[in-house]
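User: Hi! I'm working on a homework problem where we have to compare a predicted structure to a textbook description. Could you give me the structure for the chain below?
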Amino acid sequence: MTCQNKPKLLWLQSITCNGNTHSFLNHPELFFILSHFEVVHHPVLDSSYSMEDVIGGIVPCDVLIIEGSFQEEGFLKSGVEVSSIIKHYANKAKHIISVGTCATFGGIFKQKNPEAISGFCFNGEEKTERYSTHASKLISLPGCPMHPRWLSYVLLMISGKKDIPIDNLHRPVELYGYTVHTGCTRNEYFEWKIDTKTFGLKEGCLFYETGCRGPYTRGSCNKILWNDINSKTRAGTPCFGCTEPNYPQESFFRTKTNMGIPDKVPLGVSKRAYLTLTGVAKSFTIQRFTERLMEYDK
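Assistant: Happy to help. Predicted structure tokens:
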């Protein structure tokens, strides 16, 4: 039985580790969110149509969710190119949501074959040939994986027929309009340039010594916490920059520097202004910070 008044939601996977599927399955209001749609096919959840139906091209589709990196040729299901299946339903859909960095920019799987593997509408920051056809429908939700509440925000906005403001990479501004640094509990350490060289501690900034990319990575991980509890930086692990087109970088735990100066500075700040502020900050000794860090060093 179909639900006549609900948008038809189709979730398709390409080259993927299933991370975004499993992330969304952890959403505390998963079934409430999905109750606004008819799930015509999902790789894990019970749904109205089989994968054979999907491959046959007979499935209705209003909202297409794409998970995984895109490869034009050589990745098949039941003898059919997955790329052709995705493009068929992308043409049908009113909305296309790329979930995760792989589907959005190419992600980790792109490292295997950069010439053949990309995101659906973006190859890193570059637009693919599919962009011009589907850009008006596209919402990007990069992340490795994407936060489950990012997808629920988009789905409820679509269900409520609300406009979703987006940036130049089609990421919702409400979710990616600021950096992971925003809301980080270590911000005061960052301001005074007091770093930690140890993982897992609650004290000290993770930027200089352990490679945190929070100051120039767009995302809401420190405002919309994972499991409503935590984030990488709160747990003492640097941000890896997984929402950005250039993810993954060469090293997760190193900040690239030139003569001691970070190669990249926080978004929206000139390098000259940043260096001036850094010099002033390092000229001060904040006793309460140094005492806390000394306790951990004992």
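For your comparison, note the following. The domain at 187-297 is CATH 4.10.480.10 (Cytochrome-c3 Hydrogenase; Chain A, domain 2). The CA atoms of residues 75 and 81 lie 6 Å apart. Good luck with the assignment!
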